Structures are given as structure tokens and as C-alpha cells.
């Protein structure tokens, strides 16, 4: 009985509070800050070197990429396309759109660029065909609506666009998909079309930037942070004394770090898209990386979907591979939570969740992806996940205390440079 009391006392600190696991391994903050300073300096030096393009690799003729275009350029490109269609109809040939194929078979992972790109295969979308007539009509209608936006110089959301012709579109996924097709047809980024997604991502921490002329200090935005503007072209004058950018998968972890003001203890910028990354958050992250020359560390769930989310930020999504040059942030480090962390940090069994059959299939499919194979550390972690059939959320760390994430786990990760 006396031994039990002694053990319980040894697990308490002098203030009578439970001793957090591994907290004794932490070095003073000044030591960790020096490690981060060296890491940030190395990242700045590597970012200064020129990045390769498809032209440098000689792939520009076999792959397709879009660029940012001015409203006047988008408008004139649409008008030229419609004139071509009109001539085809008047000559008795009907009309068809030559649409770049966005299927998985027409995509290519380029190791030198570490991102997915779209190859140059196209498919005809004729109006005089029963299988494509409706989609051709939707494409024409989207082109008309985008032309109106160019004339009025206004932005609308994808939801607004859908509600302009609900009977034709039937479902927003259809108008959204054709909107991406239109970007490919015109050769411009989706943001060039003045169609935006609703605000989703947020940012907090050591960042000051201008939003349409208004200066925003992200250290003074409360724990909710600043919503990432949907019009990234209006964002500028980025200033920061941060040492790194912390990309967080979920809102819950973001709120914990924001409320604990983790960015003051270890100067950083914290960003989240609250799950699946949206275009605005991906553009904003890329802009910060390029302008501030800061390393990016990612905190995601230890499951196949966490790694998929990380890969979308880093290598691009297959759905928007045509715009991967603008939407991807190179060299994101996987900080946690990783499968090996579950045993390393002694995550309790009741906080580990069994992987479903779909989870295991997704994990095995990821192991076949070229962007995973390129990183041996990712392969090792993903193999361990599939083997143990266990997954865990970031919130599993809360079993050691609500602030364990910000007080022990992340500082120790940074101290040990434990990222992939």
C-alpha cells in the first residue's frame, strides 16, 4: 500500500499536479528556438534557389498548365471562342468544345517538381450528341455567366453561380465540375474567372498582411483568427517574424493552439482549412511560403485521410491538377501525428481507433502513389499504419491533458527535429 502511495506521489510535480509524459525531456525554450532559427535559415536559403518548371524539364508540350489572366484577357478569350462556335453553326457543322481530359489516366506525377500535372489529352464535347448535349449546354451557360462577371468586374461564389440556373445545373457538383473544365478550356486559373468559394480557412499568429487595402495583424484577431480572404489577388504586403508555418488539419487542434497562443512561445503562423483544403487556403499558403520563405510543418490525423490532405497541399489534387503550379506548396514536412507516434508517446489503447476496410484500402492505394513512394519516411509510416490497422486523431493527445499538444508534444517534436 505504501509503495502505491509513493508511486502516485512520484507522478505528481511539486505543485501537486500530474506530471505530463515526456515533459522532463524538454529543453529550455531558448534551445528549441535556436534549433528553429537554424531550420528557418536553411529553408530560406533553399527557397532562394530557382524552382524548376515544365519548360525546364521539356514537358511543356506534353502537359497542360493554366496561368493567371486579367479580366479583359478572359473576356476576349471567351468572345473568340463563341465567335468560332457561331461560325461553325452557320457553316452547318454544329459545334463542340475541345475539353482537356481531367481523368486519372491523363495525369502525371513529376518527381522533379514533386507535384501532379495534367497531360495534354483532350476530348470533344459535341452539342449534337445525346450523351453530351446537356454538359455542352452547361459549359456554354457557364461561359456566358463568367463573361458577365468580366463585364461587371464582380466576384460571385460557386453557390451563387449554381443558383443562376438551378433547373439546368440540377446539382452544384455539376456546375462546379464544368467550371473547372472552363478554366482548362480558357487556359486560366479558376480565380481568374472571378468565381470564388465561400470562406473556410483561417489564419492566426505572427503575420501582418493587407486585405484589399486594410492592414490585418493576425496576433490581434482573437482565438478565432482571421478568415482567409477568398480573393487572394487582393492580399499583399506580407510581413512576419515567424520561424515557421504550422499547417493544422482540423479546427479543434487549431483552436487549442490559438487559445494557448502557441505562436508567441514559438514564433509561427498557424493555418487551417478545417478539413479538406479549399482553393483559397491553398493559394494563401503558397503565397506565404513564396513571399516569407518559411518552412511549413503539417499537423494532421494519423490516418490515410490525414496523409491525403497533406499531399493535396504539397503535390496537388487530381481534380485540379491543371492548376497545380499555383496551388501546391513544395517541401511540406510531416510533423505529426504519425503512426509511429502512437507507441512512442504511449497513446492509450482506448484512444486508438480500429481502421475500417475502407481506411485500409485507402492506405494501400496511397502506398501505390508515386508521390508517396518518393518519400521513404512516408512509406514506412503508412506501412506501419496498414499493418497495425490503427488510427488516431490529434485529439488523442488530450488524454494526457487538454494542453498536452501545445505544452509537450509540439515543443518536443520541434526540439528533436522530428519531421519527415
UniProtKB/TrEMBL annotation:
Give the Spo11/DNA topoisomerase VI subunit A N-terminal domain ranges. Answer: 134-195
Do you know which Pfam families this protein is assigned to?
TOP6A-Spo11_Toprim, Topo_VI_alpha, TP6A_N
Q: Where are the transmembrane segments?
A: none
- Stretches the record annotates as Disordered: 1-23
Provide the binding site for Mg(2+): 249, 301
Domain Type II DNA topoisomerase VI subunit A all-beta stretches:
199-235
Subcellular localization, as worded in the UniProt entry = Nucleus
Q: Which UniProt keywords apply?
A: DNA-binding, Isomerase, Magnesium, Metal-binding, Nucleotide-binding, Nucleus, Topoisomerase
- Which leading EC class covers this enzyme? isomerase
EC numbers? 5.6.2.2
**Domain named Topoisomerase 6 subunit A/Spo11 TOPRIM: which ranges?**
244-414
The protein's required cofactor(s) are namely:
Mg(2+)
Recorded hits in InterPro entries, A to Z, give: Spo11/TopoVI_A, Spo11/TopoVI_A_N, Spo11/TopoVI_A_sf, Topo_VI_alpha, TopoVI_A, TOPRIM_Topo6A/Spo11, WH-like_DNA-bd_sf
Active site residues according to the UniProt entry: 163 (o-(5'-phospho-dna)-tyrosine intermediate), 163 (nucleophile)
PANTHER family with a match to the protein in the record = DNA TOPOISOMERASE 6 SUBUNIT A, MEIOTIC RECOMBINATION PROTEIN SPO11
**Task of the protein:** Component of the DNA topoisomerase VI involved in chromatin organization and progression of endoreduplication cycles. Relaxes both positive and negative superturns and exhibits a strong decatenase activity.
Q: Which family does it belong to?
A: Belongs to the TOP6A family.
Q: What is this protein called?
A: DNA topoisomerase 6 subunit A
List the source organism.
Citrullus colocynthis
Q: What is the lineage of its organism?
A: Eukaryota, Viridiplantae, Streptophyta, Embryophyta, Tracheophyta
Amino acid at each position: 500500500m505504501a509503495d502505491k502511495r509513493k508511486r502516485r506521489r512520484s507522478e505528481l510535480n511539486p505543485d501537486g499536479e500530474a506530471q505530463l509524459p515526456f515533459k522532463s525531456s524538454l529543453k529550455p525554450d531558448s534551445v528549441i528556438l535556436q534549433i528553429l532559427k537554424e531550420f528557418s535559415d536553411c529553408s530560406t536559403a533553399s527557397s532562394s534557389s530557382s524552382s524548376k518548371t515544365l519548360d525546364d524539364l521539356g514537358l511543356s508540350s506534353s502537359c497542360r498548365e493554366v496561368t493567371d489572366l486579367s479580366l479583359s484577357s478572359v473576356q476576349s478569350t471567351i468572345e473568340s471562342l463563341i465567335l468560332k462556335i457561331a461560325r461553325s453553326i452557320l457553316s452547318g457543322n454544329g459545334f463542340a468544345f475541345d475539353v482537356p481530359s481531367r481523368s486519372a489516366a491523363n495525369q502525371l506525377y513529376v518527381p522533379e517538381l514533386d507535384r501532379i500535372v495534367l497531360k495534354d489529352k483532350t476530348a470533344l464535347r459535341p452539342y449534337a450528341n445525346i450523351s453530351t448535349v446537356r454538359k455542352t449546354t452547361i459549359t456554354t451557360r457557364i461561359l456566358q455567366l463568367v463573361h458577365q462577371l468580366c463585364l461587371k468586374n464582380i466576384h460571385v461564389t460557386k453557390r451563387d453561380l449554381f443558383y443562376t440556373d438551378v433547373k439546368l445545373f440540377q446539382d452544384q457538383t455539376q456546375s462546379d465540375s464544368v467550371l473547372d473544365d472552363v478554366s482548362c478550356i480558357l487556359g486560366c486559373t479558376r480565380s481568374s474567372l472571378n468565381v470564388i468559394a465561400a470562406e473556410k480557412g483561417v489564419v492566426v499568429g505572427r503575420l501582418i498582411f493587407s486585405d484589399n487595402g486594410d492592414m490585418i495583424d493576425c496576433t490581434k484577431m482573437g482565438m478565432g483568427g482571421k478568415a482567409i480572404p477568398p480573393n487572394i489577388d487582393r492580399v499583399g504586403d506580407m510581413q512576419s517574424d515567424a520561424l515557421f508555418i504550422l499547417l493544422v488539419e482540423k479546427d479543434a487542434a487549431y483552436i487549442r493552439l490559438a487559445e494557448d497562443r502557441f505562436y508567441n512561445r514559438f514564433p509561427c503562423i498557424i493555418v487551417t482549412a478545417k478539413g479538406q483544403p479549399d482553393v483559397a487556403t491553398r493559394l494563401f499558403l503558397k503565397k506565404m511560403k513564396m513571399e516569407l520563405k518559411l518552412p511549413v510543418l503539417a499537423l494532421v490525423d494519423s490516418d490515410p485521410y490525414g496523409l491525403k490532405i497533406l499531399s493535396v497541399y504539397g503535390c496537388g489534387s487530381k481534380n485540379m491538377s491543371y492548376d497545380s503550379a499555383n496551388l501546391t506548396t513544395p517541401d511540406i514536412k510531416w510533423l505529426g501525428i504519425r503512426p509511429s507516434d502512437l507507441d512512442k508517446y504511449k497513446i492509450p489503447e482506448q484512444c486508438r481507433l480500429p481502421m475500417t476496410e475502407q481506411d485500409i484500402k485507402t492506405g494501400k492505394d496511397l502506398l501505390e502513389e508515386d508521390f508517396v513512394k518518393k518519400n521513404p519516411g512516408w512509406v514506412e509510416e503508412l506501412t506501419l499504419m496498414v499493418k497495425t490497422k490503427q488510427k488516431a486523431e490529434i485529439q488523442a493527445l488530450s488524454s494526457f491533458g487538454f494542453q498536452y499538444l501545445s505544452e509537450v508534444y509540439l515543443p518536443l517534436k520541434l526540439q528533436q527535429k522530428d519531421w519527415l
